[in-house]
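Hi, here's the filled form for the chain we discussed.

Project: internal
Contact: R.S.
Residues: 591
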Amino acid sequence: MTAGPAQNKFPARVSALARRIGMPAVVLLAALAFDLVFVTDAAFDDTGPRGIDLLLFPGIFAMVFCALWAQKRAAVAAVAASVVLVAYTLVVRYFNIPTYSSVLAHLSITEVVAGVEVLFYAARRTRPGVAFAVISGLVLATLTAVSGRYYYGSESNGTMAQAMLFGGLLLGGTLLFAIPGRDRTAHPKNYEKLQKLNKLVMGQWPLIGLLGVALILEFGFTYESGAHGFPILVCSIVAAIVAIAAPRRPADAMVALTAVMLLSALVTPFLRLRYDYPTPGGVPGTQVVAGMGLVVTLVRAVGLSKAASRIAGLSMVVAVASILNTKRPTPRLMTDPDDIAGLVVAALLLLGISVAIGLALRSRDSERTQVIQSAISDAQTSERMALARELHDVVAHHVTGIVVQAQAAKMMGEKNPQVAVEAMGRIEDAGVEALAAMRRLVRSMRGDAPAGSSEFSEQATTDLAADLRTLIERSNHGVKTSMKLELPPNVPHEVGRSALRLVQESLTNVGKHASGAKEALVIAEVCENELHIQVTDDGREPQGRPAGGSGGYGLIGMRERVALLHGRLSAGRAPGGGWRVEAWLPLEGEE
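And the returned structure, exactly as it came back:
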């Protein structure tokens, strides 16, 4: 059997961890790790008193606690987050602690992410009135923090209008995703859309993480450059959204991203951006990451040959952006051959990395598809074989009894009508049992019951001896059958079910093949951790066609059942005449 992909690889482990702790917690921890590195580095630089930046950590950790708490008590956590923001704004003002702008001025990225998660849970899980109250309080607390924190007593790094604009975008976007999921039953279509979006996010989480970091940096650049960088920031946000949504229509997404990047490249020269809004190679960092991610997605989806034309179009746009915007803030075009050669090498390197990752993922997807198809084929084959065995063992058993009784009634009906009447009653009973067995099989095939289940198989784990007695007493194969049963009460379910079917098929064969048989014997006993089954008769080899015909699958089905349990089976003529079927089934599974 083909082995599945290795599950111990690092990406698989990271994905499993993300699913276990939840994507919100992963994003929050990533933001916290970023701030730990950034603030610690700033605390020991040559700017300002050494170590004073570390006083930001209590407020950051308090917001992390509120975000985690919001998953269980959203309303209380929202109130606590509002108190933390206002209280720590007083601490920042009192100790004159320097602050750092991310999406919102004077708020760290962890505080912003934690606030967004608290807002999301409050909008999703609290009653409308409570949600309105706590969200309003959280918004006011955020505005207080933005306007009340200062850097060494100087003016704000970013204007209040910018903070309100970016804050409004965060608020609207969060509510847009939170509110449709409040009542799943009232809005099933909206909930299905959210589920699809969640699936998309889980599949794109590495790209989302990289784009998130890039966008955070661009928000900071926008604060530094004032309103001049806002159009570029909008283009970067649109590019990030296009790249994340690309798996649904990658070819169209590549065209859209090319258009957005071209617009950004043509607008940038008119914005008079200085070096406080860096664009490496003339292209903003977020758009670089989006372009690489979309190349990976497109190559993974359609292959390199079909993606080449669209990748070439994107490369031309990058070349135009490099020529127009590399020499900022001066309006000169880039014409130095050495500079052009360096950018070409860098661009080819990034493009090669993206194409290589896309081809690797495409190869992995192909392998997974083959493994899944093989597993499905194996499961379908196993299910068909189980149904075939059940059909042969159960239904054929009853039908054989009907044929045998009908032949007896035909032979004895003229001489003794009472025998014919009794045979008709047994035929009726066998027909009812056959119909019930067929219905069980139909339920199994429709998914209402597991394949191979029946009244006998369901009871096999409780008392195999009683089930065998019932089977033998109700058999209609026309041969007197005696039994010798020495069985413990705790026979494993699978072993008992297989033993029951072996005896049933053997008795069916007695009625079909044992010509002139007067007696049959069934032995079931336990010998040295094995269940020993033996069915013998005293008949002779039939000269003509057996009753009901011979399907030729009886012994095959028995051998399959025994092989599944790693047992042994022998079937053939007995030394003293007649036919003997013998099986040894292990009572303990192999390690």
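Let me know if anything looks off before we file it.
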